[in-house]
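Annex B, item 7. Sequence and structure tokens for protein A, then protein B.
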Amino acid sequence: MGFWQRARRHASFVIGGVLSALLAAAALLSLFWAPYPPAEIDIPNKLQGPSAAHWLGTDSLGRDIGSQLLVGAQNSIVVGVIAVGIGLGVGVALGCVASARRGWVEELIMRASDFTFAFPALLSAIMLTAIYGPGLVMSIVAIGIFNIPVFARITRGAANAVWARDYVTAARAAGKGPLAITLDHVLPNIASQLIVQATISFATAILAEAALSYLGLGTQPPQPSWGRMLNEAQTQMFQAPLLAVYPGVAIVLSVLGLNLMGDGLRDLMDPKLARRR
């Protein structure tokens, strides 16, 4: 069977794809329409429950919860795409160089990756915030830097296996250089692993952005953010508990969908698992 025929029979991939599509649809819809301006304050109508006027109710400042959730999806996707793009672009390049050159070059890149792992996204964001101030850009940079060693290590490990193959040895004997072999043989053969990792890293980036915004280091007011919505809701937990439920469910479903899709892609792109199906 072809890829899409197997994909339709893979429960994790289907469920993850649907949830991820809903996240993308919410972000796309918010570019053109939202029930209310997400930053519009309406104190007389604060802390209202779900109604025909406000489908998910309003927060402590009278802002429409549904509008904030829709626009907040934009931030999640922007952070995920750019942060994963930084890690993918720089990390894959470093991993390919380490695998192609070997020796002290590989050792230097891998030890630099180990050093970077000592500074997780949260700690990097705190350091960048102390220097440049909090904001969405600093969150993206911190998460992107954390993704670089992840992709570098995965690329280097997968590429080393490809460099040991007979067809690569034949290409080297035919006079192909490291760059040509990397572009023609290595990258096409490790692309599936990188795609799967990119999907999982996307979910991690969304979770990291929510955590940074919750701590006040990420997206700043008046731009909506699911993490900051959780932070603001904690003071109203007993008066309006749904204020914390909505953004929490949005984060959980988004991360769950991307992780399920990543697991599904891993199964579908693994030749051994594909033959079993």
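Protein B:
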Amino acid sequence: MARKSRETRRKHVPQRTCVACRKVSAARDLIRIVRLPDGAVELDETHKKSGRGAYLCGCRTCWDRALENNLLKHALKTEMSNGEKEALWQHRGSLPLESSDDIGAQTMP
């Protein structure tokens, strides 16, 4: 019988890319937008909804770029209704202007 390793194994952390800035981060650090099987587009706060997903950083600059340049439309391969776009714009309003990573990068010499 094989002995179990005393070394603890690191858990796999899924990596995803922001559709706006193309930065790779842990999936849990990004915000998921999902196209549901019925074609509706909405936020997926649980990261468990069924459907095609797209990920965005938690800063307004990425959301602005994604919503203004139709990057979500391309990533989700669907047209969004005005109501769906409005819901995403409202969520964008609750986000910080810049991510904490961007702020730290700007203060470094």
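Comment on protein B: The longest strand covers residues 31-35.
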